[in-house]
Amino acid sequence: QLRGVVALDGPSGTGKSTVARRLAGKLGAGYLDTGAMYRAITVAVLRAGVDPSDDDAVAAIAERTDLHIGDSPAAAQVRIGDDDVTVEIRGPEVTLNVSAVSAVPRVRELMVARQRSIITDVVRRLGGIVVEGRDIGTVVAPDAPLKVYLTASADARAGRRTRQDAASGRNATIAETRKDVERRDRLDSTRTTSPLRPAHDAVELDTTALDINGVLNRLVGLLDERG
Ligand code: C5P
């Protein structure tokens, strides 16, 4: 049984989400997809017709968005009020705008506070939680006993994203996806507030040559080492 937090960070296309969900399922732990929270705020921003680069307007939307997110690996549903936005948050318009929204300091402050309270609650109930994102090891849960920073080559990441998109009915070429993935990583790693970077005590794991089971085995190995 997992005790405490496993922090999984890294750019998109590293297999983070699939691995985080599977690991949580295997351990009987909770699961939190923090990217889904920034995506949901982005949905609210777009619906309100607010310019994603207008920090104050974006912050105001984040303050009043009634966001709900599941904390189980089986059903990670995302809602705004009663409205299920689980599918909408994966849409291309959201993906295009989420980095601008997530760079707003007030948005991060609100989300990090929510994430910490969800983590506390789930750890109390289930003993442990796998949390995935960009700043989990550095900001959200700096005391996590296991922090892993997943990487993969740009080609591998673009390939995975393209296949994932195709599986959910969105068809883009690898070249387009690669541009999009690189653009988002650049924005996420250069923002002022909690940029994407490995925590000093994170284990870096290159997933380029590994499949999902390969990555899972490495994570389980790391957990075993830590007792
Ligand atoms: O993980 P996912 O690709 O769904 O994340 C979407 C976006 O949300 C990222 O590109 C990043 O801009 C933002 N994000 C973040 N901090 C997190 C998780 C996601 O800024 N902890």
How much strand? 5-15%
Oligomer: single chain
Question: Spans with pLDDT under 50 lasting ≥5 residues?
Answer: none
Give the mean pLDDT.
94
What overall geometry do the principal axes of the alpha carbons give? Answer: globular
Distance between the termini: 10 Å
The kinds of small molecule bound in this structure are:
cytidine-5'-monophosphate
Output the strand order for the largest sheet.
Answer: 2-6-1-7-8
Structure, described:
ATP binds at residues 10-18. Its EC number is 2.7.4.25. Residues 6-222 form the Cytidylate kinase domain. This is Cytidylate kinase. It is found in: Cytoplasm. There is one protein chain. The protein is α/β, with parallel strands linked by helices. The protein is built from nine helices and eight strands. The strands form two sheets. A five-stranded parallel beta sheet has the order 2-6-1-7-8, sandwiched between helices. Helix 2 (34-47) crosses helix 4 (92-102), helix 2 (34-47) packs across helix 5 and helix 7 packs across helix 8 (174-190). The radius of gyration is 17 Å and the shape is globular. 40% of the residues are buried. Bound molecules: cytidine-5'-monophosphate.
What are the key terms here?
three-stranded antiparallel beta sheet; 227 residues; binds cytidine-5'-monophosphate; five-stranded parallel beta sheet
